């Protein structure tokens, strides 16, 4: 066994013990730990930003893209946002022990289905240091211990944020091993986490296609994951012009490096020369490189799309666009090229919107709203550990409630089965 493997096994064993203690801790203690972590992070804001500056300098030297740098960057406002997210998670109802359903049987048994922690969660992520706080906070709220393995890009930022989380645990009298951060950037630690059956109960990858694909291929531990955020916006002939222009521009340009950023625009054939042309002009004026299919290539400022531009996650100021016959063709396009993450329809016609919602099985479907709302905080979850696009257990934003399983509590009165 290598030294890294030995360290990972020890971390897993400590996390398992901490999870047992967390599951029995009071909701008040977990809430206090989150509030204290937010306080500690606010007090250490300067240290966190200084640590992030080291990461940013190294990232620029390695030539990371603008979108990746945006994911990595922390300033005063973003640190405040992380603190606010921790407080929001703290303020939520505690999911542990929550009665999901209960009923009585003719046999005399009373049965309850109640929420219970998953146990130990392993989170593997790349350049977004806020994931350190989001994942740590949500796992703590749901009574789970967590092992965090951040990327090389966010190494110093994650360490600084993790120190504040540990301070919160300490203030509440909870085990510091409840939130552990892997202290090496060696990729061998990732491989070890994926094989830690019996010590880690679920793996959550947060990152690009390469990372998530690796995890899904090699993990022996169950995985909550999405492979890509290939988000579409379909603008129907019934769309309101002002709403459509505002929503599409925001969906693409607010932040291009997040998984909820729109990557493909679909335009009903009847609006190409009017509203469609206006939307594409808006995007071009904002600096978006528009790669367009047939029927749009006569518009100013665009370039012809290549076949692989459809079904591609750009994570940059680049967007594909295509003309479709109707909502059925839009649905067919998204089924072919989408990733079942988030897709939106801009339409005033209720029947069109209903067909779009019924025809697709994406984790999140939106009407007349920006795909940038595909976020746990915006859904009222306080934060998210990721957007799950699988169909088992959790789908969409994974918050504290989604990080629980359930068990049955069965009560009798000397009841026997005949």
Topology overview:
Elements: H1 3-24, H2 27-43, H3 45-61, H4 66-72, H5 76-91, E1 99-104, E2 110-117, E3 120-125, H6 130-141, E4 145-149, H7 155-171, E5 179-181, H8 188-194, E6 202-206, H9 209-218, E7 231-235, H10 241-253, E8 262-268, H11 272-285, E9 289-292, E10 303-304, E11 318-324, H12 327-337, E12 342-346, H13 350-359, E13 364-367, E14 387-388, E15 396-397, E16 404-411
Helix pairs in contact: 1-8, 2-5, 2-7, 3-7, 5-6, 6-7, 10-11, 12-13
Descriptive notes:
α13 links the parallel β12 and β13. It is globular and about 75 Å long. It is built from 13 helices and 16 strands. A 7-stranded parallel β-sheet has the order 10-9-11-8-7-12-13, with helices on both faces. The mean pLDDT is 94. The protein has 2 domains: 236 residues, Aldehyde Dehydrogenase, Chain A, domain 1 (3-Layer(aba) Sandwich), CATH 3.40.605; 143 residues, Aldehyde Dehydrogenase, Chain A, domain 2 (3-Layer(aba) Sandwich).
């Amino acid at each position: 066994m290598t030294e890294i493997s030995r360290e990972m096994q020890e971390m897993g064993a400590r996390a398992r013990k901490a999870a047992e203690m967390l599951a029995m801790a009071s909701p008040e203690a977990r809430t206090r730990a989150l509030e204290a972590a937010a306080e500690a992070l606010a007090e250490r804001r300067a240290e966190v930003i200084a640590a992030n500056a080291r990461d940013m300098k190294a990232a620029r030297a390695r030539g990371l893209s603008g979108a990746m740098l945006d994911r990595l960057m922390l300033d005063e406002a973003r640190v405040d946002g992380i603190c606010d997210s921790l407080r929001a998670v703290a303020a939520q109802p505690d999911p542990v022990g929550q009665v999901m359903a209960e009923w009585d049987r003719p046999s005399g048994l009373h049965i309850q289905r109640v929420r219970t922690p998953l146990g130990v969660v392993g989170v593997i992520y790349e350049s977004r240091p806020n994931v350190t706080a989001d994942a740590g906070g949500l796992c703590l709220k749901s009574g789970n211990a967590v092992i965090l393995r951040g990327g090389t890009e966010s190494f110093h930022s994650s360490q600084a944020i993790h120190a504040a989380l540990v301070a919160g645990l300490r203030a509440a009298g909870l085990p510091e091993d409840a939130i552990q951060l892997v202290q090496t950037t060696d990729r061998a630690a990732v491989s070890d986490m994926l094989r830690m059956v019996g010590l880690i109960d679920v793996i959550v990858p947060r990152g690009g296609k390469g990372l998530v694909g690796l995890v899904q291929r090699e993990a022996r531990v169950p995985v909550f994951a999405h492979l890509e955020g290939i988000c579409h916006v379909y603008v129907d002939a019934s769309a309101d012009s002002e709403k459509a222009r505002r929503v599409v521009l925001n969906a693409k340009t607010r932040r291009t490096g997040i998984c909820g950023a729109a990557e493909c625009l679909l335009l009903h054939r009847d609006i190409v020369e009017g509203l469609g042309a206006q939307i594409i002009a808006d995007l071009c004026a904002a600096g978006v490189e528009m790669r367009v299919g047939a029927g749009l290539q006569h518009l100013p400022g665009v370039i012809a799309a290549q076949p692989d531009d459809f079904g591609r996650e750009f994570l940059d100021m680049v967007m594909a666009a295509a003309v479709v016959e109707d909502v059925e063709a839009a649905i067919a396009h998204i089924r072919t090229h989408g990733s079942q993450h988030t897709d939106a329809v801009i339409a005033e016609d209720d029947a069109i919107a209903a067909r779009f919602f019924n025809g697709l099985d994406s984790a999140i479907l939106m009407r007349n709203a920006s795909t940038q709302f595909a976020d746990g905080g915006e859904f009222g979850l306080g934060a998210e550990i990721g957007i799950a696009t699988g169909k088992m257990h959790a789908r969409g934003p994974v918050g504290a409630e989604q990080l629980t399983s359930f068990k049955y509590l069965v009560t009798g009165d000397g009841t026997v089965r005949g």
